[in-house]
Amino acid sequence: MSEQPLVHATNLVKVYQDGSYVPVRALGGVDFRVEAGEFTAIAGPSGSGKTTLLNLIGSLDAPTEGRIEVAGQDLSLLTRKGRADFRLNNLGFIFQSHNLIPVLTAAENAEFSLLLQGVPTGERRRRVLSEFADLGIEEGLTRRRPAKLSGGQQQRVAIARALVSRPKLILADEPTASLDSKTGARLLDKMRDLNERTGITFLFSTHDPMVIDRARRLVVLRDGLIASDETRN
Amino acid sequence: MLRLVKLAWRDIWRNRRRTLLTTGAVFFAVVVISLANSVQFGTYDAMEQSVVRLTTSELQVQHPRFHEERTLEHSLQEKALDIDELRLAHPWIVAASRRLTGFGLVSSDSASAGALIMGVDPVHEPTVAGLLRLDSEETTLTANRPQSVLLGAVMARNLGVIPGDSVVVLTQGYHNVMGAEVYAVQGLVRTGTPQMDRATMVTTLTAAQDLFSMPGRYTELVLRTDRHTTAREHAMRLESTLATEEAAVLPWQVLMPDLDQMRRLDDASNAIFYVFLLLLIGFEIFNTTAMSMMERVREFGVMMAMGLKPSLISGLVAMELAMKVLLGIGAGIVVTAGVVAILAGEPIALSQDMRELYDDFGFVVDGLYFTSRPSIYALPVVAVSIMSLLSMGFPILKMRSFAPVKALRAA
Ligand SMILES: Nc1ncnc2c1ncn2[C@@H]1O[C@H](COP(=O)(O)OP(=O)(O)OP(=O)(O)O)[C@@H](O)[C@H]1O
Ligand SMILES: [Mg+2]
């Protein structure tokens, strides 16, 4: 364990209060740390607060109470623009499905963050192609649009996109849920392999026992609280 | 930025039908309004030009008070204003001629009628206005027959005289000196406007100066210019350079306020139709913009998660809108310009019925004229642009309160 955790959340509370509905306490005071280099799964029944926790860590939403630091940055101090820049430079996201921009080709999707970061064309191409090669995305697919890719291929492109800018942390909300178990397993092995080689930290939410098996640390949420937290290996 | 443009371009072709609908609506508005403007401006121009060149000509130099109060006391001295100098200084003056206009009583053996008596320079008058060229050759006044006059055709009929007969004219001239003279009717004037034909007598400038006892004086210096549409500007320019304070320069719009007003009225009634059409287009533009945003909420959520700033996303939507609208405007202008180029060559002749209809409204039109001047595009282009800019407010406002979490929930 290093001195400074990559994610440091203290007493996280998230209450959703949408209009006339009764307020929902999705997180009830969670303390949570993630060290750099972890490969961690967050499991738990539906509605237990997995997505909520990932969104808060990803600065996509603000907590009702508590404090989150990611990579040493207190997220509550950032403006909207500041959060966008923070995500661009520190985070990668992989969602369950519909990750890609429909009008861009696989390669164009993958290089999007690099483009926003101002990386020159040649280097963008090089990095995207090497990432594709790494993830087993064939040459022939690079110029296809998402609609012409299978679910597994789309998810691999999404992973390539999250990886290519070498973020400190990749947040993946049920990344295998839309895939068959074989494809899902292969994808997860790939991620774990990348985690070992590059040291990029992965944090996923999942229901999938296959994913849970492959995680090195498993955090289980129940009713917005951490029910168990175990590190294997 | 370049990639964002590319992205916007691909986005607009994602829903081809909707884009074609928006672009088509803009195209339609631009073509309809520009063509309507073209024929309206063109026909009015032609009509105004023909009326102007028939009667008042584009500009007149008068005594500053003559237009309000038409008395001979408000006349000018020939020596005070040198025509050649004037034309030298203002090359856009194509022709110039003096007139002396007063009132009198014209009598035949059997009847009398009040008349506007116009003394014109027989050599130069035909170069400034068409009044004297309307009828046959023999009606042309010549300086060597000073005692001859032309009578308005209706007046001649009312007085029961034909060319060759004579009439007696009584006037109250300059400084109230009475004038009386006998003239031979040389010919008839048919202007096409009954009011004029009923009460006009034309003679030479010198004959009129004699009749009104005001040798060397006149009431109007009529100027023909190269263009009637710029008369107001020309009038101002000329007046500022006139040597004498005792003269004003009036454009035809002031000399014939009815003609100018008719056009303004017509413009206003068209404007109502245009506003209606444009509002429809504006609604369509706003609607598609809003729709194209609503259905891409999830996508915008992903983009924001990736670190795209909200302002860039609204910029993207705005750019998409601008592309669609500019395509429509561009195509509209190209097509209109093509159609106008073909039609501008020769006017479309009006049927007899149509001509009579126009006649009832007091128009003198023999056909529909199309103009290709750029101002025909001004209204549709400006209006569509303004409405597009207003519609761009929607994505900008929307993105301001855009919550990526909610967007990502919308699968
Ligand atoms: N925007 C929202 N408004 C109201 N309630 C919400 C909102 N988002 C989540 N919730 C509620 O908060 C609780 C936690 O939701 P969350 O999505 O974090 O659960 P989850 O563990 O990701 O579930 P799943 O496994 O089904 O994805 C649930 O009860 C959910 O209904
Ligand atoms: Mg979830």
Structure, explained:
The complex is a heterodimer of chains A (233) and B (411). Chain A has 233 residues and is of the alpha/beta class. Helix content of chain A is 35%, strand content 26%. Chain A has helices at residues 50-57, 80-90, 106-110, 112-117, 121-134, 151-164, 181-198, 209-214, and strands at residues 7-16, 24-34, 39-43, 65-70, 73-74, 91-94, 169-173, 201-205, 217-222, 225-231. In chain A, α5 (121-134) crosses α6 (151-164) and α6 runs parallel beside α7. Chain B has 411 residues and is of the alpha+beta class. In chain B, α2 crosses α12 (310-344) and α10 (257-294) packs antiparallel against α12 (310-344). Chain B is elongated, with a radius of gyration of 31 Å. The chains are: A alpha/beta (233), B alpha+beta (411). At the A-B interface, α2 and α4 of A face α1, α11 and α15 of B. Adenosine-5'-triphosphate (ATP) is lined by residues 16, 18, 24, 26, 44, 46-52 of chain A.
List keywords for this structure.
heterodimer, A: 233 residues, alpha/beta, six-stranded mixed sheet, four-stranded antiparallel sheet, B: 411 residues, alpha+beta, 2 domains, six-stranded mixed barrel, 15 helices, 13 strands, 52% helix, elongated, binds adenosine-5'-triphosphate, binds magnesium ion
Q: Roughly what is the average pLDDT of chain B, rounded to an integer?
A: 86
- Estimated radius of gyration of chain B: 31 Å
Determine the structural class of chain B based on helices, strands and strand pairing. alpha+beta
Give the helix proportion of chain B (percent range): 40-55%
Largest sheet of chain B: 6 strands, mixed, barrel
Report the count of strand segments of chain B.
13
Describe the structure concisely.
The complex is a heterodimer of chains A (233) and B (411). Chain A has 233 residues and is α/β, with parallel strands linked by helices.
